[in-house]
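F.,

This is the one I mentioned.
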């Protein structure tokens, strides 16, 4: 393919990048087609290049007005060779200013995916552009009902939107989305992951209050707390400039509150569907993620919602054995809150590795769980204490030999004799 046109149109390209409308106004006057013609190596139009700078706003406004004046509005959203149109580009870089210009002309473009299947909403969440995401969500709501089967909140599109919003840390936005589109919590993204699984994999979202038992309900913020946080938001924004460290504490607490509220809301929405297979799948997968990553508050909420979820084995391991393997003390305490649970799970055997709880405790902790700055002696002491704790509830027969392999099996795991 010949790219000489790219060189020939460099003045337009540079003008788009530098917000220099005056230098190209006459060029477009003489040859209007250049306004909507792909002129870059990547097949971008002048509009897309200007939008992509997030600073050539004057250029964008004049160009859009000129395109409309020449009755070429149908070419405003010409896509690049990569399959993105100007609104996709604005969403990717957080260019809300130019997104407004484009959406005012064609609001329906909010719902149009790029060649990879990503809508502007998803792109804004993926690239951490909260302001743009909020704007697009608001404008999409103003469009009214979507066509059946094409909703941005169902299927993979819905799964992508909610999981990426949580990954971005926009928990307040996620809460708003779920409050208006409750069923989005059951949707899987293109990686087959649900919103609750994402929460389970992110212990950093629950940084404040450790949980040992369900009786510690004081950790849950009530309605008064929610109102307090909302009403004092302006005060804390001012305090950010006067005492940044105090504002940081507030932000951490607010994120913790939002994470707990989001987790509880999702679990409640799932159990209210009264569908066991759905509950087992979503709460089980999320609990498995939480066990592996050490997110006890998600586990606590899942177990509170559906206690039998402690028997979930859908990820190829039993939750209690994985908690022991990963040295997740808080997770371990939650799973073994009930004496009967501890007794029932004490003699489970990993089918694949033919190992029981004591085998798992006897192995060296995974590298990411070894606290290297404590020294070898303290680490060894910690490992020994962990082993003794597990040994205290394992049947004597299982303590005699690390090579013992009972024969009975059930659900992929061996039971004690």
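My design for it:
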């Amino acid at each position: 393919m010949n790219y000489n046109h790219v060189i020939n149109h460099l003045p337009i390209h540079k003008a788009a990048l530098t917000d220099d409308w005056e230098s190209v106004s006459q060029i477009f006057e003489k040859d209007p087609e250049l306004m909507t013609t792909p002129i870059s190596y990547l097949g971008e139009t002048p509009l897309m290049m200007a939008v992509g700078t997030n600073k050539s706003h004057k250029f964008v406004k004049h160009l859009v007005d000129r395109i409309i004046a020449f009755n070429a509005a149908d070419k405003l959203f010409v896509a690049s060779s990569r399959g993105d149109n100007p609104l996709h580009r604005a969403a990717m870089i957080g260019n809300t200013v130019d997104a407004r210009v484009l959406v005012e002309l064609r609001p329906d473009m909010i719902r149009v995916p790029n060649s990879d299947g990503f809508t502007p909403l998803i792109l804004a969440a993926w690239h951490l552009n909260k302001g743009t995401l909020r704007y697009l969500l608001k404008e999409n709501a103003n469009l009214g009902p979507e066509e059946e089967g094409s909703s941005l909140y169902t299927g993979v599109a819905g799964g992508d939107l909610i999981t990426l919003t949580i990954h971005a840390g926009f928990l307040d936005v996620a809460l708003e989305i779920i409050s208006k589109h409750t069923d989005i919590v059951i949707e899987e993204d293109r990686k087959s992951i649900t919103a609750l699984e994402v929460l389970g994999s992110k212990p950093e979202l629950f940084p404040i209050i450790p949980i040992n038992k369900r009786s510690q309900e004081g950790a849950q913020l009530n309605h008064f707390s929610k109102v307090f946080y909302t009403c004092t938001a302006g005060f804390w924004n001012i305090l950010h400039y006067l005492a940044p460290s105090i504002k940081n504490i507030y932000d951490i607490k607010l994120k913790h509150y939002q994470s707990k509220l989001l987790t509880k809301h999702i679990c409640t929405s799932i159990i209210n569907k009264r569908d066991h297979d759905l509950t087992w799948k979503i709460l089980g997968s999320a609990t498995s993620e939480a066990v592996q990553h050490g997110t006890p508050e998600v586990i606590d909420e899942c177990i509170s919602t559906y206690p039998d979820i402690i028997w979930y084995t859908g990820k190829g391991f039993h939750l209690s054995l994985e908690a022991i393997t990963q040295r997740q003390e808080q997770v371990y305490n939650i799973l073994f809150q009930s004496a009967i649970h501890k007794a029932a799970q004490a003699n489970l055997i990993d089918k694949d590795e033919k190992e029981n709880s004591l085998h798992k405790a006897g192995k060296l902790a995974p590298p990411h769980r070894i606290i290297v700055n404590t020294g070898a002696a303290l680490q060894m002491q910690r490992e020994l204490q962990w082993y003794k704790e597990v040994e205290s509830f394992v049947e004597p027969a299982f303590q005699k030999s690390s090579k013992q392999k009972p024969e009975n099996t059930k659900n992929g795991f061996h039971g004690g004799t």
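The longest helix spans residues 244-271.

Talk soon.
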